[in-house]
Amino acid sequence: MRLATFRSNKGLRAGVVVKEEYVIDLEKAAAFYGETLPNEVKALLELGENAIKTTEKVIALVEGNLEQAIHSKLTQPLSETSLFAPVPKPDKIICVGLNYKDHAEESNMEIPQYPMLFSKYSNTVNGPYDNIVLPKVSENIDYEAELAVVIGKTGRYISEENALDYVAGYTVINDVSVRDYQFHSPQFSLGKNFDTHGPMGPWLVTKDEIEDPHNLNIELKIGDQVLQSSNTKELIFPIQRIISYISEGITLDPGDVIATGTPAGVGFGRNPKLYLRDGDEVIVTIEGIGEIKNKAVKEN
Questions:
Q1: Do 115 and 72 share a structural domain?
Q2: Number of domains in the chain
Q3: pTM surpassing 0.85?
Q4: Which of 77, 80, 187, 260 is the most buried (most CB within 10 A)?
């Protein structure tokens, strides 16, 4: 299942993308068939397994009579739909730094003994095809292709053995970073949290559709130039370890996003350095999930 958030004249709404051809309005379609579902992906995850089963039932009903669904405006073409990040306002975005050996090496940093964590805030959340704003205060805006894990149920002190049970699914994130601000101090929070610097999407692929999250090709291009190319099997700390470690101190809740780290090839690790410029089109693709495509646009 591909859970998405799309824009409408009534604001952001929860949907399901089917066959990459059309989007089902979940709340509207559920009501049409006598069921109840929320109009937010986060709220859907909070309702748990029963809501997911209801969603599957509604999808089957729509697909069983697609003409009726189209006529009743329960669906709309994906090509005519403006998608936003699947979870528009996550309570937490927790990122893992230096989680690929080659990225640690290009950063001239030692391999960490524990997951190196930092946070992004909800102001960074951006749509899969929206512009990345290049702030007027810096020329050092970098890219980082990452697999993001979306939490599906509340947990604390989660064991590694059970960690994947707490996962709702996976999405793509670009951890855009303002490098000079990041390295102004040892605490590099500001450089990771400029507005629009967390494009995500294009949807949340539920975990049942991903056979092994530790064997997915990940790639970033600017235009036609491939700058990052790796596979999630190269993660230093696997997803189970990351979730378990975080939950030793932080209660994880539905809709929380964990960005698992980026491979080598980022701009500041190159010689000469390569930073985003006005007009650059940044494409991040992860096998089995999809791609996000964002244009870098200079702030007015």
A1: no
A2: 2
A3: yes
A4: 260
